[in-house]
Design goal:
- The two termini of chain A are 34 Å apart.
- Chain A has 2 domains: 120 residues, Response regulator (Rossmann fold, 3-Layer(aba) Sandwich), CATH 3.40.50; 93 residues, Arc Repressor Mutant, subunit A (Orthogonal Bundle).
- Chain A has 223 residues and is α/β, with parallel strands linked by helices.
- The structure holds a DNA duplex (30 and 30 nucleotides).
DNA sequence: AAAAGCTGTCACAAAACTATACTATTTATA
DNA sequence: TATAAATAGTATAGTTTTGTGACAGCTTTT
């Protein structure tokens, strides 16, 4: 279940938010000022922070700015009507939503669940494949073997990524050519072989994962 | 493999999404405006729709709303930066994810695969036949006996796969020759015998599954 | 502009595969 | 059981397919 950090200097406000939030099933922790909020936000992992703008010691904006330097935990700001409206509305701080005080707890809860749902839905899943010491990071376009970066040429990446993404499948020469080079490629028949050769060289000890399917094509096999 | 409908009025955007998506193995269809999108989304079954918000004729939201009346095909919306309102509005419509323009194709692909994976629950249909310890994986082009990989030559694979796919049926010599070797093969009559022999050898303890139909041909029999 | 790097093509070498010829065995039938 | 027909087994030469190094035309970097 999601964890929420509630930051407000007024005990009563924290209590009411806590009451509603835990009723919704969230795990709630509290902080009474900006400094404590920063400490907790950075030392623990919250799914959402609900923070008041007006607080003694360190205000909500400054705390938000500081937290954002290190983490991108979603933040909902609470503020009095008209107060710093532009700053919040400009979203220059990267605030995910804001609620005007006095607020209805019910409305706040709706915003909370909306933000959490949105963030979790769009959370970037790491797009990585690994097998033994071989790690393929598709999104970063990085291949490492036993922690060592493997340098590949663009074509090698394209060919390799396609094969890894379709690992375990028999890929015909035609498929590989048309997917990696494009269906309008009518070059030499041996081009694929040459690149397979280069790829195997780059893969070093893992070259055996690129299996030749005589008369058909190739298959990437890991485990 | 999954089918995707890409909806955007800009040809260039459609092309780049199409390129990346087909590289990932998706089958991609295109629509250039909201009306066409609705037509296609309702008449065909897509696994995912990627749709721009801003389009002439009929915008993405309206199209989304209309499609959702009839189908729950997952939808990823594309829209220009800063349209926070659109973002929330989009989620209220039951949009599955949201990507800000200009987007990196790589990021979009990650979202696409995340949504599809989430919706389908990573169900992977494998094209496999098995009988006792004999496993034939057609898509990987792998045959195993009691967990051990069996190495076959191309002709053996072709012949064996054809027989397994038509298991239980009497296959005449003529049928086998023409299906496996091609209609234009007029070689020696004994060629088939020889390959049957090699195949039986490869099948080891399961060689009895290849039954001789004297005067007719052969039949693959498994249980 | 020079240097370095990437791609596609080619020729040749190496490996793997296949068709065929030939012999042996099995099966059907008289 | 003898005989012919059909299928099984074996060896191998010739063919097909793949691996590899060299290289030239391009592109990107420096």
């Amino acid at each position: 279940m999601s964890r929420i950090l509630v930051v407000d200097d007024e005990f009563g406000i924290r209590e009411i938010i806590k009451k509603y939030a835990s009723f919704e099933g969230y795990e709630v922790k509290e902080a009474e000022d900006g400094m404590k909020a920063i400490d907790m936000a950075l030392s623990e992992d919250f799914d959402l922070i609900v923070m008041d703008v007006m607080m003694p010691e360190l205000d909500g904006f400054s705390a938000c700015k500081e937290i954002r330097k290190h983490k991108k935990t979603p933040i909902i700001m609470l503020s009095a009507r008209g107060e710093e409206y532009d700053r919040i509305h400009g979203f220059e701080l990267g605030v995910d939503d804001y609620v005007v005080k006095p607020f209805s707890p019910r409305e706040l809860m709706m915003r909370v669940s909306a933000v959490i749902k949105r963030v979790q839905g769009t959370r970037e899943e790491s797009d990585v494949f690994s097998y033994k010491g071989l790690v393929v990071d598709f999104s970063a376009r990085i291949v490492t073997i036993d922690g060592e970066r493997v340098n590949m040429t663009p074509k090698e990446y394209d060919l390799f990524f396609y094969m890894v993404k379709n690992r375990g499948l028999a890929l015909t020469r035609e498929t590989l050519i048309s997917k990696v080079w494009g269906y309008d490629f009518f070059g030499d028949d041996r081009t694929l072989d040459t690149h397979i050769k280069l790829l195997r060289k780059s893969l070093g000890e893992y070259s055996y994962c690129v299996v030749t399917l005589r008369g058909v094509g190739y298959r990437f096999e890991a485990e």
